[in-house]
Fold this protein.
Amino acid sequence: MKIDLIAGARPNFMKIAPIIDAIKVEQSKGENIEYRLVHTGQHYDKNMSGSFFEQLEIPLPDVNLEAGSGTQAEQTAKIMMGYESLLKHESTDYCLVVGDVTSTMACSIVAKKMNIKVIHVEGGIRSWDLSMPEEINRMVTDSITDYFFTTSETANNNLMKNGIPEDRIFFVGNTMIDTLLKHRPNFKQPLIWDEVGLSKKNYIVMTLHRPANVDEEMILKELIDEIIDHSKDIPIIFPVHPRTVKKLESLGIFYPNLHLVEPLGYLEFNYLVERAKAVITDSGGITEETTVMNIPCMTLRDNTERPETIELGTNELLGVNPKAVGPAMGNLFSGTWKDGQIPHLWDGKAAERIINYLLYSL
């Protein structure tokens, strides 16, 4: 059995790393299973150096399609052309994609047209917001996927409502949590800890990157102002993209307890999250990690594709609404934040289940 493992951005590698570990375990038992790690080159990330792969024990990619930057259409075309060329040179039995980036959709389409079975890890999740490119990627990918490996019963139900037979859906858990639990003992204190004099449960971590929050200047300013106004002066650690830094500077946003830092490595960032009083974010993946680490989380989005982090976990959806920040911060500081639970099968063994299904059930 030959499997192509497709990754286009840093979180993809984190989701795929446990799958590689599980494949290696089966190889050591003599099972006939091989993989090829394909980096589409969709995202160039300066933090994705050799140390990234070394820290998280991820093998270097076997192939880099070097798609590079461009518009959505340009990237999709370059990834499809590169992957088609690779498959013509050396085919595979399965194309395994994860998540919802452009590479996920593009490689799925190429594989399917070349009669290669498509596997979608993290299939079935939905925000129901078609203004998000990721939602379109999810819907297109799931419409041509052969086998789905899901993170929640909600995802299973979404797929079945779309007419997918139950025997093609496998509820396995969350490979991103596999990576989190494996590396949790290795979390690494970042320099900002001593520079600011941080202490456990006495600071907030914030991440913002979605256009609705960072491209609309007045919304960005009002969000930051509301967060600072209700922060009780504890430090706010904001790993931030240089483009957003310039925007904050142009808006004249300077506060003594707002600390802008460069994007952090995985081990350093989660060291901060694990010890934080709370996280404020517009990311999806971070809400999964805060749920597992039992850290209060406020999501500045109008929707989420991970409802289990709200229904079971520590996450609350505030919307893109600065006025919702104050009441949420009030709950946080009054000690009335809800207790969270870890979703079923988020136990660090999702990748093991995936490979067992591939070898013995398909």
